[in-house]
Every structure is written in C-alpha cells, then in structure tokens.
From TrEMBL:
GO molecular function: allantoicase activity
UniProt KW Hydrolase keyword: yes
InterPro entries: Allantoicase, Allantoicase_dom, Galactose-bd-like_sf
Family under the similarity heading: Belongs to the allantoicase family.
Descriptive protein name: Probable allantoicase
Pathway listed: Nitrogen metabolism; (S)-allantoin degradation; (S)-ureidoglycolate from allantoate (aminidohydrolase route): step 1/1
E.C. code: 3.5.3.4
Name of the coding gene: alc
Reaction catalysed by this enzyme: allantoate + H2O = (S)-ureidoglycolate + urea
PANTHER family documented for this protein: ALLANTOICASE, INACTIVE ALLANTOICASE-RELATED
Pfam family, one: Allantoicase
Top EC group: hydrolase
Membrane spanning residue stretches: none
GO biological process, any: purine nucleobase metabolic process
Length: 333
C-alpha cells in the first residue's frame, strides 16, 4: 500500500465532496465515487438497467471518445496520490483512465469547469479490474476539482484523492476548530487504535455510532491511552470539546489535554509541554465542553484518556496564527 493512502481523502463525501458533472451514468450513478464507505456487492441483484453496482458505470460506447466525471473536492488541497478503485467491476471496468486537476474559486457550474485550465495529475494509465489502482501524484499545487476520464467506458467503484488539506484563510472565521481534519489538522501518533482509528475523532460532523470514533482495546496494565494531534495551524486554544457520544459502557473515566509549540520545543521532552486542561472526569455518551484559560501558542495537542476507552470527537476551538495560515495557502496557489 502506498504511503499517500494514509492521508485524508479530499474528495470524500465526509468533507462535502460531490460529483458535479458526469457525461453518462446509465447503469450506476456517479455519486457513488465519493462515498466514504468501502464498496459492496450483492451478486445476481438486478434492477431495470441490469446488475446493481455500488459505483459509477456508463453504457457501452458505440462511438469514439471517452467518459468523464468531475468531482468537487470537499477539502481542497495538494494532491499526493489517487486511488481509482474498480472493486467488483470485472468484465466491465475501463481498461485505461486518467485524472486532471484544476483550481477555481467559488462554485463553478459544469460549463465554467469545462472552460477551466485543467492540469494532468495522472496520465492515461492501464487499470486492473476488481482492484485498487494506486497512482502517486507529483504536484505542489492546490486543487479544488478533479476530473476522472475513463477510456472508453465502464465502471469505477470509488475515486479516492489523497492529499494535504489546505483551506482558504479568507473563508475561515477568526476562531475555528483547529483540530479539525477539514481545516488541515492530522493525527501525528497514538497509543492504540484497536477498534477505531483516531482520525475519526477529528472528522466533520457528529459521530453516527460507536464505530465512528476512536476506541482502544481494554488495558490490563497501569498505563493509559493517548493521541497526538498536529493542529491545522499554530493557535491559542480557547475552548475544548471532548465528546463521548455513543460510548456508554466504554467511555474513558477522565482525560487531560496538553499542548506544545514544536517550533521551539521537543515533542519527546516532557518539560516543553504545558497544560491546557487538567484531569477532568468524563461521563458516558456526553458532549463535554471546557473553556481553556489563556495559554501559549500550540502546534500540537496531546489528549490522554484514563485508562482507555472511546472518544467520538475532539474539537479544539482556537485563535490561529493568521500569518502562518496565509503563507501556507499562498505557497500552493
């Protein structure tokens, strides 16, 4: 598996991604391309247009050309890799595909997108059926849309566009959730993720179930579990939300928050860390909100839970360093 697959999927419906144009979707809707869930398949399940597929499937072409779908990235950013997943498409997958990108402000319609300056991200390349097709992208530009071209026709289950999220600072308020993945935060480390990945904890929206959070295995020692979040931008934290929604018999008993400015301190030096939130008791299935006193700027925040358990969401509302935010955006636009 390529390393870029560990990065967020910028096209995912989780971040608000969507298909804004498809020239054909006769057998299966193009909206499936950006669904966050893995594709599924039930054999011999037929509708009025044939076997039902969890993906985008076009009709068989009887003239020259190729089929196209344009995806608005829910989280614009720098693309590092693409996964053209043909899961369950065997005799009907496209033999070749390519991917282009463009950066356009606002909310363009299909006509405006057709006239946009598209840049090749993945050249026309062969695909394998019923498989993930992974392509590394060598680009340092920020993109808002991608265009999937399939040659000449066929079916694709999912399009994953993995990369580094770079928000437009003009569209952010003065205080926002600096631990949110959609703003560019990421998980930098954790002690355990047996039942659920900590990336879930910084995903948009409320958790839908216990499976939509970070959950560790049961500890049988005297230690505790933790997760390290690299903030979207160096910030002063003003409000912390520790959400244990859906975790009832397995919520942590308590938690702490600590911060560090890694530009001047060392992550592995305990003396460089400062307290954001002292150890507080947590209740099951509850959204806890705690004001944070004025503290130094943090680039990373560590959540410690005692002794183990599950957290649905972590929200850290803070006042960002605007100069850093603007510089990062300008460097890729």
């Amino acid at each position: 598996m390529e390393e870029f697959t560990l990065l967020p999927d910028l096209a995912s419906r989780t971040f608000g991604g969507g298909v804004v144009f498809a020239n054909d979707e006769f057998f299966a809707a193009s909206d499936h391309l950006v669904e966050p869930a893995a594709p599924v398949y039930a054999p011999k399940t037929f509708g009025h247009k044939g076997q039902v597929y969890d993906g985008w499937e076009t009709r068989r072409r009887r003239q020259a050309g190729h089929d196209t779908a344009i995806v608005r990235l829910g989280a614009p950013g720098v693309v590092h890799g693409v996964d053209i997943d043909t899961a369950f498409f065997t005799g009907n997958y496209p033999p070749h595909a390519s991917v282009d990108g463009c950066a356009i402000e606002g909310y363009p319609d299909p006509i405006q997108l057709a006239e946009a300056p598209w840049v090749p991200l993945v050249p026309r390349s062969p695909l394998v059926g019923d498989s993930q097709n992974l392509f590394t992208v060598d680009s340092s530009q920020r993109y808002t849309h991608v265009r999937l071209n399939i040659y000449p026709d066929g079916g694709v289950a999912r399009l994953r566009v993995h990369g580094e999220i770079v928000p437009d600072p003009r569209l952010l308020p003065s205080v926002f959730d600096v631990a949110a993945a959609e703003h560019g935060a990421r998980i930098a480390g954790c002690s355990n993720m047996f039942y659920g990945h900590p990336h879930n904890m910084i995903s948009p929206g409320l958790a839908r179930s216990m499976g939509d959070g970070w959950e560790t295995s049961r500890r049988r020692d005297d230690g505790n579990d933790w997760v390290l979040v690299q903030l979207a931008v160096p910030s002063v934290i003003e409000l912390a939300e520790l959400d244990t929604s859906h975790f009832k018999g397995n919520a942590p008993g308590s938690a702490t928050l600590r911060g560090i400015d890694a530009r001047t301190g060392l992550l592995d030096d305990p003396t460089d860390w400062f307290d954001l939130l002292p150890q507080v008791r947590l209740s099951p299935d509850t959204r806890h909100r705690f004001p944070v006193s004025v503290v130094p700027v943090a680039t990373h925040v560590r959540l410690d839970i005692f002794p183990d358990g599950g957290m649905a969401r972590l929200r850290l509302h803070g006042r960002p360093d605007g100069a850093v935010l603007r510089a990062r955006y300008e460097a890729v636009t």
